[in-house]
């Protein structure tokens, strides 16, 4: 039996984070939404272990790249399988790997395209 994938969404734009959470939930994903990086990190340290981390590049005084880096220092069993950064800001780098992520999305984010790209990277042990 396969388990549904899960996603941790972290964005300080509460409306956007909530809409993305609703979208992924409607697609059968277990969804957790946080609007601050410290709250997201607390959930991860508590054992959340999502399939995917989708975070904004700028989250208040924190950066999504810092959140990704902190998450990668967790025990492997707690680390997401897919890391995604999204941004609405002009950035010098346009490659996900420059932020320690697997995928980089530019806002406004098309959730259908994001879901498709994310699903290509998750292990076959999950279904969506």
Short characterization:
The protein is an alpha/beta fold and 128 residues long. The protein is built from 4 helices and 7 strands. Helix 2 packs parallel to helix 3.
Architecture overview:
The structure is a single chain. This protein is α/β, with parallel strands linked by helices. It has a domain of 86 residues: Response regulator (Rossmann fold, 3-Layer(aba) Sandwich). Helices cover 33% and strands 23% of the residues. It is built from 4 helices and 7 strands. Strands 2-1-3-6-7 form a 5-stranded parallel sheet, sandwiched between helices. Helix 2 runs parallel beside helix 3. The chain starts with 5 loop residues before the first strand and ends in a 7-residue tail after the last helix.
Notable characteristics:
Rossmann fold, alpha/beta, globular, single chain, 4 helices, 128 residues, five-stranded parallel β-sheet, two-stranded antiparallel sheet
